[in-house]
Amino acid sequence: MNILIKVTYDGTNYHGYQIQNKLKTIEGELSKAINDTLKKETKIYSAGRTDRGVHALGQYVNFYTDTTIDLGNLPRVINFHLPDDISVISAKEVPFDFHARFSAREKIYRYVVYNNKYRNAIYHNRAYQYPFSLDLSLMNESFKYLIGQKDFKSFMGRDAIVKDTIRTIYSIKVKKDNKFIYFDFQGKSFLKNMIRIIMGTAIEIGRGKKDPIFMKEVLEKQNRKYAGPTAPSCGLYLMNILY
To answer: Where is the active site (predicted)?
Structure first.
C-alpha cells in the first residue's frame, strides 16, 4: 500500500531537507526512522525540499509498504525513532499512483517577521527579528507585481541549477498580529531562495529605501544582483501542500 505522512520539523540544526552525504538533514533522519520502523530499506518520496534553517508545519512524504502496523499508530512508532525536532503528525493510505511531489497542486509558505525594537530570545531561530518599522501598504503594493505566471530568475539563489525559472504565484497575503507580521505565499512551486529574496527586497521597500515599482524593475532585469538581500531562513515555514 501507498502511505502518505505529514511531517513537521524545526530546521535549525539541519543542513536543509534533502539527503546529503555525511551531513545531518531532515530527509536523512526521516528515512532512517522509517527504515527502522518498517525494519527494511524503504524509499521515500518527499513533496519538496527546504533550505538549511527553514521549518515546516506541513511537509508530506509517501512510501510503499506492506506493514501490518495500524495507521493510527504509525506516526507514534516512527516518532519513536526520530529526534525531538522532527515529528510525524498523521498517516493515511493514498492511491497507488499518488506521489507526494508530482501530485501536489499548490504549496503554501509563510514568512514570519517579529517586528520589534528589541529582540526576544524566545523567538530566536523561529522568526526574522527585524527592529525597524515597516510600511505594509508599500510592501503590499510591491507584491502585486509578482502575482501570476512570471519569470522569477531575479529572485533565484545564485547556486541554483534549473532550466525553467518561470513560476506562478497565486497570492501573497499579509497579516499583522501585534509584533508579528505574517507573509503567506501560495503558488504551484518556488525556486530556491525565491521567497526569501522576495522578502529581502520587500523589506527594503517597507523601510522606504525603494519604491514599490522597484519590485517590478527587479523582476524585469532577470538578474539576481538587482534584487535585495536574501532574508534569513529562520523566518520561513512550509505551511501546507494542497493535493
So the answer is: 51
Binding site membership: which residues?
Answer: 109
Extract the C-alpha cell encoding 68.
501490518
CB 200 within 8 A of CB 227: yes
Q: What is the DSSP string of 43-66?
A: -EEES----TT-EEEEEEEEEE--
Average pLDDT over residues 34-44: 97
Is residue 230 packed enough to be buried (19+ CB in 10 Å), middle (13-18) or exposed (0-12)?
Answer: buried
pLDDT value at position 98? 98
- The amino acid present at 234, given as its one-letter code, is C
Which residue ranges make up the annotated binding site for substrate?
Answer: 109
Mean pLDDT of all residues in 95-104: 98
Give me the pLDDT at residue 53, please: 97
At 132, the amino acid letter reads: F
CATH value of 2-94 in 3.30.70.580, 3.40.309.10, 3.40.50.300, 3.40.1260.10:
3.30.70.580
List residues with catalytic annotation.
Answer: 51
